[in-house]
Amino acid sequence: MAAPRTSLRLVAAIWSGSTRGIHGLGGAAAPEGSQKKGKTLLQFLSDHFYDVEFLREYLLQRQMLKVHQENRSFAYIAEKHGPYVAGACFILKQGGAVKFQNKEWIRPDERGRFPLEFSEFPGVPVEAVDASGCAINYDGLDNVLLLKELRSLSLRRCPNVDDWCLSHLHPLANSLQELSLAGCPHVSERGLACLHHLQNLRRLDISDLPAVSNPGLTRILVEEMLPNCEVVGADWAQGLNSEPEEQPQDRASPVHV
Amino acid sequence: DRTAGRWRRDWDGKVSEIKKKIQSILPGGAWNPLYDTSHLPPEHSDVVIVGGGVLGLSVAYWLKKLEKRRGAIRVLVVERDHTYSQASTVLSIGGIHQQFSVPENIQLSLFSASFLRNINEYLAVVDAPPLDLQFNPLGYLLLASEKGAATMESNVRVQRQEGAKVCLMSPEQLRNKFPWINTEGVALASYGMENEGWFDPWCLLQGLRRKVQSMGVLFCQGEVTRFVSSSNHMKTTSGTEVTLKRIYEVHVKMDHSLEYQPVECAIVINAAGAWSGQVAELAGIGKGPPGTLQGTRLPVEPRKRYVYLWHCPQGPGLEAPLVTDISGAYFRREGLGNNYLGGLSPEEEPDPGNLEVDYGFFQDKVWPPLAQRVPAFETLKVRSAWAGYNDYNTFDQNGVVGPHPLVVNMYFAAGFSGHGLQQAPGVGRAVAEMVLEGHFQTIDLSPFLFSRFYLGEKIQEQVII
User: Fold this and answer.
1) What domains are there in chain B, each with its CATH number?
2) Angstrom distance (rounded) from CA B442 to CA B278
């Protein structure tokens, strides 16, 4: 009796169009515990019915298309209004915030609307960009690279920012002074290594990066790589959980000898 | 009591056998009333790909992706060793770079970089976790002496024209950026800023395998021992007699037995890597008077290359790219723990009969140039080493792509002499376009066709010394 009810719930989830439902049906890494029963039912249906298999593949493709659409090129705006306005429009459309030089932060409201006065001043450069939680990826970064005088970039908790994106940041080496990558699930120490191009970086936030295998060692190596930069986030003692009492003894032993 | 236990164990075995038989009888199973044939390949297949490494799987992927109707083409991949113990793909260091002088090579590498970047869109499978290629985007650094500086400059000009992000560095800039390099003898260096680096080839192979299986490609573990072909004697416009052959059956022999299965096929793709030359000989390529098209063999042979892993406590830091010295020695960082991988192409080729490592080669030939270039490497300790095959093209060290002029339905995708892994996605797409459309559509690889061996047209990379 449980099976028909679960299938009805799944059908309702598809047609309500909620992202959680589509996520579960598309099958991109569904969590193990809570949706286990649903996962096996969907897999069973996929294995035995071509229509279900095709529908799931189609939904997965649609998810990916959505990310592509959000990261489309804004070069056509750059031709008309200049690079700063184009980059700012891109960030604001994604839900991030933009700060022009000598002006206040511009944020979109909860409906996604934002004021358009900045388009009247195409010569004012953008100083800071806050793209936290946005779906920005490698292609979208092309629009951010239009902002040649960007000083501060915040990519906190961006789900599509990975090591390739960090290697794409090198054109901003002359101006970028502050970068925050806290909470990005796909950034690893390999991407952090290519930040050595950004020699003007003064503040780097690398806290809470789950893909970095050894946060303490990574922080030490990044600090060696960027001597003028303040690296915030990973504690160097992270990972040294066992035997905390031995450390004072280690410091004492050279004195003995 | 003991007999009851044995009876229960026998019964479990019998139940699984009965289940297997019932499953094979149901629709979708291959049922042969006489014996179990589940390990044999199917009797008919449209395309048979000889070789299940990264090139073979890439061709299979693009064939299924570019087919006009779902399920239009039946593809069979025949791989001799399912553990891939000698395959060049998995023994490679996994580097990708665009610093070539032949424009087609640069285009192939650029496409491969964008394929790897979007690998979770290309190879997405429902319910499967996303792939983590462990890509390290640190780039390649090629060093040139006075003699090679002009070649390097013209190469970089071609690379930038094609869209690769490569920059030239003077010795002073090198010293500022990488203080651990000894720039004595270096006149110029080229550094790849983006789309260059190294990744995990196993992950790419498993990802391709998973995706290609979900698209309906069949895998078979066996060795191709015979091609049966039909001949067609024709006359060219000038009156010379030409024999065109068409392979219509492939004999696939199973491991450790004399059993073989004849597979009827329409197209054969030779992606056998270091053994492509042997597979081509089976098809009769090269059996003829020397100097004629029939007598031109596929000049691909296996060459052994060593890779050494060492530990150096004061070695180059996290930002070290893959450095290729003027002498040809190269090294790159591996992981966070100051381990480094490197090697050198030997002048005297070692015997490719086995994959044994010669540690003496490291002491004599690899360590001195590396220690001279990076003084910190004077105190290093070799941890381990391995050897792998390079499918070396003795003619011009570049790949062979496309159909054979006489054996009309054999297509090549081999002979890339060390670049196969990084050019696999582009080459796979090119071969699939050739098979499905009849000509190259996206990247024009006509200079890489087989006919160049007969016509003597070499496309050689300008090597930087």
Assistant:
1) 38-137+196-299+394-464 (3.50.50.60), 140-192 (no CATH), 304-389 (3.30.9.10)
2) 30
For B311, other C-beta atoms within 10 Å of its C-beta total 15
Print burial letters for B338-370: b (CB count within 10 Å at least 16), e (below 16): bbbbbbbebeeebebeeeebeeebbeebbbebb
Find the closest chain B residue to A54 by CA distance: B126
Verify whether the Cβ–Cβ distance B130 to A28 is below 8 Å.
Answer: yes
Could you give the ipTM of this predicted complex? 0.85
How far does the CA of residue A82 sit from the closest CA of chain B (Å)?
24
Give mean pLDDT, residues A122-136.
91
Contact state of A64 with B317 under an 8 Å Cβ cutoff: no
Task: Report the helix count and the strand count for chain B, using DSSP H and E.
Answer: 13, 19
**Residue A42 placed within a domain:** no
Test A57 with B126 for CB contact under 8 angstroms: yes
> What are the chain B neighbours of A191 within 8 Å (beta carbons)?
137
pLDDT at A17 over 70: no
**Contact B138/A221, CB-based, under 8 Å?**
no
Give the type of residue at A120.
E
Would you state the pLDDT for residue B432?
Answer: 96
> Averaged in consecutive runs of 10 residues, what is the pLDDT profile of chain B (465 residues)?
72 84 72 75 94 96 94 94 92 93 95 95 91 93 93 94 94 93 93 94 95 94 94 89 92 92 95 94 90 91 94 90 93 91 89 89 93 93 94 92 94 93 96 95 94 92 80
What residues of chain B lie within 8 A of the CB of A53, using their CB? 126
What pLDDT score does B30 carry? 62
The count of domains in chain A is 1
A236 touches chain B (CB under 8 A): no
Condensed to tens digits (0 to 9), the pLDDT of residues B53-90 reads: 999 999 999 999 999 998 899 999 999 999 999 999 99
Task: Determine which of A163, A218, A226 to mutate to test the interface with B (most B C-beta atoms within 10 Å).
Answer: A163
Q: What does the pLDDT read at residue B226?
A: 94
* A130 inside domain: yes
Cα B181–chain centre separation: 32
CB contact under 8 A, B137 and A27: no
The structure's pTM equals 0.88
